[in-house]
Amino acid sequence: MQPASEQEALDLLDNLRIKYKRLDHPAIWTMNDPNAPKGVHEVKNMLLKQKKTNQFYLYLTDNPRIDFKSLADQLGIPRNRLTFASEAELAQLLGLVPGMVTPLALMHDRHHQVQVLLHRHLQSMTAIPAHPNINTATVLLSYRDLLQVLRAMGYEPSVID
């Protein structure tokens, strides 16, 4: 698969007339990276997989500590069946590398194998940060605009606790 590009993410936002604020910064590889812009509440984006199936979950949360047991319970699967997608799966499904996971790359999930999960706390955030398919920039979107982007790509996210 062709790598996801910054331009296609920005074009998507522009074509949908989504207003966003762009922040350029040094590469951010983790939620607690010291290069993260000051004052920006980081959102963790993870591509998870149900073992031995082709069911994938893009999970967005504001919580740096993930309760995998609770998440698996909410998905109706055993905890030992939930794992991180491999680097190869991430590249094949979304055209990304670890550290750049973003909902803006879902346009690459041509067969809609990914189910989008949004933690309920995101609804109260004033701005949702997302990488535009690179980790040297962040775009800030409203929750409403994030939903509009996801729906335009054919996803109806599930809100979870």
From TrEMBL:
Xref: SUPFAM superfamilies: YbaK/ProRS associated domain
Domain YbaK/aminoacyl-tRNA synthetase-associated: 43-148
Keywords for this protein: Protein biosynthesis
One Pfam short name: tRNA_edit
Top-level taxon in the UniProt lineage: Bacteria
Protein family per UniProt: Belongs to the PRORSD1 family.
Name assigned to this protein: Prolyl-tRNA editing protein
